[in-house]
């Protein structure tokens, strides 16, 4: 299974933007990246009346839609815990989750002082780094929000160094 990191933070802190900026750098280094987004209020990919919706309504436990070069799957799972979802990403080099503050995966929190008064996970034993627009008193590495290369270097060194997906290192040798 791939290593897992969770990008966490309060609402509107920039989690999606941070992930969106990290993905191209990780891809440039040759890694396959999977993403799991926690949707607190549920979601529905199927649109009423479409075949996949009709199949689910008829009782199918898993529905997959395939088209040239891509698939989408809707599957009943026992819960929304990150550990229940990891097996779906076994062909990835790294799984990044967005949200999942309460799960036990290593966490990188993004905090913006302009949006919130206090970080969300300062007392969490699984917090491994902080990304912030302001200096904080923390015992974990801290990165500026714009320092995507340093954040990516930290992730690679901590989770991917020597990993089978480290294609950039293989090319250098």
TrEMBL record:
<dbReference type="Pfam" id="PF03205">
    <property type="entry name" value="MobB"/>
</dbReference>
<protein>
    <submittedName>
        <fullName>Molybdopterin-guanine dinucleotide biosynthesis protein MobB</fullName>
    </submittedName>
</protein>
<dbReference type="InterPro" id="IPR027417">
    <property type="entry name" value="P-loop_NTPase"/>
</dbReference>
<dbReference type="InterPro" id="IPR004435">
    <property type="entry name" value="MobB_dom"/>
</dbReference>
<dbReference type="GO" id="GO:0005525">
    <property type="term" value="F:GTP binding"/>
</dbReference>
<dbReference type="GO" id="GO:0006777">
    <property type="term" value="P:Mo-molybdopterin cofactor biosynthetic process"/>
</dbReference>
<dbReference type="InterPro" id="IPR052539">
    <property type="entry name" value="MGD_biosynthesis_adapter"/>
</dbReference>
<feature type="domain" description="Molybdopterin-guanine dinucleotide biosynthesis protein B (MobB)">
    <location>
        <begin position="4"/>
        <end position="133"/>
    </location>
</feature>
């Amino acid at each position: 299974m791939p290593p897992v990191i969770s990008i966490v933070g309060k609402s509107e802190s920039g989690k999606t933007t941070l992930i969106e900026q990290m993905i191209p750098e990780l891809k440039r280094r040759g890694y396959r990246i999977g993403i799991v987004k926690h949707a607190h209020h549920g979601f529905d990919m199927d649109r009423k009346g479409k075949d996949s919706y009709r199949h689910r309504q008829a009782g199918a436990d898993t529905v997959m839609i395939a088209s040239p070069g891509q698939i989408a799957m809707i599957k009943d799972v026992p819960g929304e815990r990150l550990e229940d979802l990891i097996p779906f990403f076994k062909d990835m080099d790294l799984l990044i989750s967005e949200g999942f503050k309460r799960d036990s995966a290593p966490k990188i929190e993004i905090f913006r002082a302009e949006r919130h008064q206090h970080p969300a996970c300062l007392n969490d034993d699984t917090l491994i780094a902080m990304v912030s627009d302001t200096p904080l008193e923390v015992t974990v590495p801290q990165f500026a929000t714009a320092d995507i290369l340093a954040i990516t270097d930290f992730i690679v060194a901590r989770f991917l160094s020597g990993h089978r997906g480290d294609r950039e290192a293989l090319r250098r040798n």
